Amino acid sequence: MTQQRTRQQYDEIAHYLRTAIREGHFQPGDELPSEAELTRTFTSSRGPVRQAMSTLRTEGLISSGRGRRTVVLDNVPTQSFDDIISFSQWCHNADIVPGQRTQWVTRRPAEKSLAASLQIPDGDPVVSVFRLRLMDDVPTMVERLNYPLEFGRHVLAFDTDSGSIYQELIDQGVDISRTSRTIDAIGANEDDAALLEVPVGTPLLRVRRRAFTGAGALIESSDDRYLPWKASFTMNSTRGNPSSMALTSNHLGEN
Amino acid sequence: MTQQRTRQQYDEIAHYLRTAIREGHFQPGDELPSEAELTRTFTSSRGPVRQAMSTLRTEGLISSGRGRRTVVLDNVPTQSFDDIISFSQWCHNADIVPGQRTQWVTRRPAEKSLAASLQIPDGDPVVSVFRLRLMDDVPTMVERLNYPLEFGRHVLAFDTDSGSIYQELIDQGVDISRTSRTIDAIGANEDDAALLEVPVGTPLLRVRRRAFTGAGALIESSDDRYLPWKASFTMNSTRGNPSSMALTSNHLGEN
DNA sequence: TCGCCAAACTTGTACATACATGTACTCATC
DNA sequence: GATGAGTACATGTATGTACAAGTTTGGCGA
């Protein structure tokens, strides 16, 4: 239940267009109303209209250019920051019932590599969670979460079988403002295989995520492994628009 | 070799800031010059400065907010549209020597599933390419490309062992303006395994890409499979900024 | 009928201004 | 020294204007 506050004009316009596209009032290939028309429709000036268009453009929903009318592209999926960070939230939006079976929650001193990935000194206390996540009661993903104690203490005080850790952190006033994800593939190890009910070595889609506060403090370092036939990532990019993704080469043979 | 044309102001500013961050003149955590300072530095108005900032924000390089100074985030990688669509271009930027060993190039009528993915009628002619790609002479990725004849004819007339098909299409006047990628994991089949010199079933990072013209015509449908210890995807997202990615669930057991 | 050109309209870029809204600092006061 | 009000300054939002640079349209002339 997000606060409703009075919506900004550009947000109003973006929401209208996005909804109209999703509901099919504008089909792929159709022309959107011109900026001049939209300013009249919303009794606004060109600024907010262009800001809304810019948003939809980076979401990959529309394409525009000098002289050309703005057209609707394929009806591609995009998700907001909140939808994509929380498995529970994501399931709700897809009309799926999320589930979780916590394997263990620990508090212990960080060994070297974990400390490095959390950007804390060796031996500092770390809270770790290991859960199996389910979609409609079907095993889908194994989740390994690690928190420095400052944020992990909220997790220790939380029943991890009851729902969304992300939502709990928000409620506790933790300001999650940015995430960085690295995606690759990895074979299921014995733990993964047992929980997901597949053979050892089954290819899994691995998403390693690090979440930060606005001030830059690291909140979480996680490792999620999805069954690839249950979930996949989609990304849109448009020439001339900024991109938030990169394909990176790993010279060193890490794992 | 892209045309240099006179750069726009906002592009000038964005380029300056991006370079300064990459080269470490602004460290993560540092404050960027205020908008007012930048307008003076570049003898510009606030519009272009804000447009540049907006670009860097969606690239995940900076964070800003009402009342707060704009700060540099971690020095995260991001790549432009051109860098990420062309394996050759990508390698060059990373100081890697790209290579390719073409297995075959064919022209044939599309069978049902391929026709569907190319959005053309069953039986329409399709040009397909199957290549092994190398980084510094080391097998890294297997590439399967499919083009409708309209665009594929340029590929047929091209020596696919000589370099970048993408660059060739550009040179032939094909306007590639948008791509959509789906990322998941899959085990190496016999062809993959033989070329990549790994056992059958080895987990691979699969990137299925579809490329479109500005008008919406489908140019290419491809399937790239990377050795996950050679390459991975990275994505940044910031709360409140538009996102161009989505995690999608596959209810149906496709492959 | 065909081809060319000018006009009208589209989106992109830039400038100037105003006010909203949040942060951070100064400084007087207790 | 701690506290709190006030102030200066930061970015966010909105308006209005102007021009640049493409595309589309329609009419005119050959």
Fraction of residues in helix of chain A? 25-40%
For the record, the CATH class of the largest domain in chain A is Alpha Beta
Whole-number tally of structural domains of chain A: 2
Give me the CATH fold name of the largest domain in chain A. Answer: Chorismate lyase
Q: Superfamily at the CATH H level of the largest domain in chain A?
A: Chorismate lyase-like
The chain pair with the largest interface is: A-B, 73 and 73 residues
Description of the molecule:
Two copies of one chain form a homodimer. Chain A has 255 residues and is α+β, with helices and mostly antiparallel strands. The first copy, chain A, has two domains: 64 residues, Orthogonal Bundle (Arc Repressor Mutant, subunit A), CATH 1.10.10; 146 residues, Chorismate lyase-like (Chorismate lyase). The first copy, chain A, has nine helices and ten strands. The first copy, chain A, has a six-stranded antiparallel β-sheet with strand order 3-4-5-8-7-6, with helices on both faces. A two-stranded antiparallel sheet of chain A has the order 1-2. In chain A, a hairpin with a 2-residue loop joins strand 1 and strand 2. In chain A, helix 1 packs across helix 3. The longest helix of chain A has 14 residues. The first copy, chain A, is elongated, with a radius of gyration of 21 Å. The two termini of chain A are 39 Å apart. The relative contact order of chain A is 0.11. The mean pLDDT of chain A is 87. Chains A and B meet through helix 3, helix 4, strand 6, strand 7 and strand 9 of A and helix 3, helix 4, strand 6, strand 7 and strand 9 of B. Strand 6 of chain A pairs antiparallel with strand 9 of chain B, so a sheet runs across the interface. The structure holds a DNA duplex (30 and 30 nucleotides).
